[in-house]
Amino acid sequence: MRRYLVIALPYLWLLGLFLVPFLIVLKISLSDLNLSIPPYMPQLDPSAGWEGLKDFFSQLDFENFVFLTEDDLYWKAYLSSLKIAVVATLLTLCVGYPMAYGMARAPSEWRPTLMMLVILPFWTSFLIRVYSWMGILSNEGFLNQFLLWTGLISEPLVIMNTTTAVYIGIVYTYLPFMILPIYSALEKMDDSLLEAAEDLGCSRLQAFWLVTFPLSKSGIIAGCFLVLIPSIGEFVIPSLLGGSDTLMIGKVLWEEFFNNRDWPVASAVAVILLAILVIPIILFQRNEQKQREADG
Amino acid sequence: MRRFSWFNLTSLTLGFAFLYLPMLILVIYSFNESKLVTVWAGFSTKWYGELMQNEAFLDAAWVTLRVAVISSTIATVLGTMAAHVMVRGGRFFGRTLFSGMIYAPLVMPEVITGLSLLLLFIGIGLDRGVLTIVLAHTTFSMCYVSVVVSSRLVSFDKSLEEAALDLGCTPFQAFRLVTLPIIMPAVISGWLLAFTLSLDDLVIASFTAGPSATTLPIKIFSSVRLGVSPEINALSTIMIGIVTVGVITTSIISKRNIARAEADARAAERT
Predict the structure, then answer these.
(1) Are both B134 and B261 inside the same structural domain?
(2) Co-location of B161 and B241 in the same domain
(3) C-alpha to C-alpha distance for B37 and A24, rounded to whole angstroms
(4) Is the CB of B250 inside 8 Å of chain A's CB atoms?
(5) pLDDT of B239-256, one tens digit each?
(6) What is the tens place of the pLDDT at every residue in B53-90?
(7) What is the mean pLDDT of each run of 10 residues along chain B (271 residues)?
(8) Which range of residues forms the domain containing residue B120?
(9) Per-residue pLDDT tens digits for A181-207
(10) CATH code of domain A70-295
(11) CB spacing of A10 vs B81 below 8 angstroms
(12) Are residues B77 and B192 located together in one domain of the fold?
């Protein structure tokens, strides 16, 4: 009896507050905008019985999805979210890999401290970390003050409210997610492999490229997906650091819902976003599975 | 032999400078006299004073704290149950769906989670306020808790539980007397994770909060949108300070526990 309670409680919670809400989104994405409360139709009327149900289903259609494919804005928003997320992920890899490599090479008594320094920002509010860049990147911000002072530039650079600022924001906030899996892959590596490679005539660079890098591949893949998946639907970073030309789908969805109050279109945007995310999520899970099999 | 080269040292120095300089600047400039955030005009703590006078921020902080404590506690109970079911539960109807529902919220974009919950609350006619934020936060953080706890459950010896059952414990007693003490560190870190996620969350709270309840991130976001303000710098500094103290304390405690366990193991070897 108790066993069933232990299963049922989390099960029902997730059914009611995760699966059902998502089915509602799916349903509303097939509905039409209507000037009423709630602002969509058809409404399911349980008192009408079987006829009402049939009537209800006959009114659902894919109009919103057709609308999304016809309006340029949405296509561009999806594509540019993907582009921004991919470029930002690669940039994060370029910053994160040398750090993870340095950590794995550091004297072992340093490592717990370095590890803590990587994790600490993760516990700090995401919003505050994004906000901290606003004072740095603005026209009269610290970066421009510094560059003007060094004489490298004579006019302030416009970085704030551009896509560049969004890249910086993503790299900054998601860096720990990139470093940790790569570090854990590099740390497990057997050093005698490198010695063997060098004994066999590899230069240090060759040894890195032929031994270290392939062995850290699973960490790189895991890190890249951990950065890529959340950045596609990112909202906070583009809305604080990005400008009007930075199109990201998370922001479009937000505005569609809160500013235009078009719930059906917002729901359709959400459904397509999820469909796009399914591919990287499956690839990520496959990588994790392979990793577990290799470990165990 | 691992060689720690100049290249390694440089990349670590630059990398950590990148991670910490923005926050350091934020902290330093929260003590700035001037209203202009990028011009230094002398040391002052007046923004902290003004923050303490700001009723709206204090109210929001109180709401946020209440939501975080309640939701992370419920999430820890549900998440631990879910982890136990996943690791020890054996087969039951709809197991695949259950595990899918635990992992899906981890990768779901926040805007979608928020939107779907809001549509549910409106659909069932629930007024938005503290209750709806608690429900929303509990739902996504219980999944994180269950991942943390189940990784601990997987790694510990099942025969301990079986021994307790053989010795006449009911399954619940076996869980309370044997399993729970062993997985306690994971349960505590699960709670801390849930608590932090709840404190941090802006997007889901924005969808599920009503006019009667505003959380701190919502408040910060709406004022930060207009630009940098010294008051927000002061608030950020307080939050960064709390997190830093918390993380350092827990790492010292866990280091001490590990050292003690090692000492115990050595003592046991000697006897």
Answers:
(1) no
(2) no
(3) 45
(4) no
(5) 999 988 988 888 888 888
(6) 989 899 999 999 999 999 999 999 999 999 998 888 77
(7) 80 95 92 81 88 90 95 96 87 86 90 94 90 96 94 85 88 88 91 93 93 90 86 92 88 82 80 66
(8) 52-227
(9) 999 999 888 888 888 888 888 888 888
(10) 1.10.3720.10
(11) yes
(12) yes
Q: Which chain A residues contact residue B244 at CB under 8 A?
A: 120
Locate the chain A residue with the closest alpha carbon to B195. Answer: A123
Angle in degrees, CA B183, A186, A228, rounded to 5: 80
* Residue contact B110–A233, C-beta within 8 A: yes
Residues B152 and B247 in one domain: no
Of the candidates B75, B83, B64, B36, which has an alpha carbon nearest to the alpha carbon of residue B182?
B83
Contacts of residue A15, defined as CB under 8 A and 6 or more positions apart, other chains included, come to B101
| Residue B219 is assigned to a structural domain of this protein | yes
Cα(A174)–Cα(A168) distance, rounded to whole angstroms? 10
Global pTM? 0.89
Q: Which residue has the tokens 């975080």?
A: B68
Polymer length of chain B = 271
Task: Determine whether the interchain pair A10/B4 forms a contact, defined as Cβ–Cβ distance below 8 Å.
Answer: no
Same domain, B133 and B152: yes
Same domain (yes/no): B250, B209: no
Task: Give the count of domains, chain B.
Answer: 2
Q: Give the residue on A whose Cα is nearest the Cα of B137.
A: A17
Q: Is the ipTM of this complex over 0.90?
A: no
Q: Which residues of B, range 51-70, sit inside 8 Å of A by Cβ?
A: none
